[in-house]
Write a structure and sequence with these properties.
Blueprint: H1 57-60, E1 75-78, E2 90-91, H2 93-98, E3 109-112, E4 122-125, E5 127-128, H3 130-138, E6 142-145
Parallel strand pairs: 1-3, 2-4, 3-5, 4-6
Length: 149
């Protein structure tokens, strides 16, 4: 057997149905669409979510609330998570991401005051809560706000 002897298995290749190509093709005139009706029309067919005239689900369920499209979402880091660092160190967003404190690395970071901080750290983040800022400074550390939110 050579390469030029190879061919697909019998019945593996089927000819495409060419519709609307005259009466000789066997699929002329109505082009397999039948007579009249929604599916016979140009652009015919039901839109997504159409339920045969019944009130669609998207219109039946109650709507509520408001989603602000301009909301800034932050990756949250609590003060108790910063206890692993040694005193005098600078805690950057990259260091927090490497330590696994931040799951979504693309989001800006906000430090919250949940927990206690006993070491003096220089903490860099995009935003701080008032309690977190007070606790970091009370421990002898410093707060550095990074821009670019």
């Amino acid at each position: 057997m050579n390469l030029h002897d190879l061919k697909p298995a019998r019945g593996a290749k089927k000819r495409r149905k060419r519709i609307g190509r005259g009466p000789g093709s066997g699929h002329g005139k109505t082009a397999t669409k039948g007579h009249k009706g929604l599916l016979a029309r140009s652009g015919g067919g039901k839109r997504p979510g159409f339920e045969g005239g019944q009130m669609p689900l998207i219109r039946r369920v109650p709507k509520f609330g408001f989603a602000n499209p301009f909301r800034t979402e932050y990756a949250i880091v609590n003060l108790k998570s910063l206890e692993n660092w040694t005193g005098g160190e600078t805690v950057t967003p990259q260091a927090m991401a490497e330590a696994g404190l931040v799951k979504r690395k693309t989001l800006p970071i906000k430090i919250l005051g949940n927990g206690e901080l006993k070491k003096s750290l220089v903490v860099q983040a995009h935003k701080f809560s008032k309690s977190a800022e007070a606790k970091i400074q009370a421990a002898g550390g410093r707060v550095e706000v990074i821009g670019g939110v």
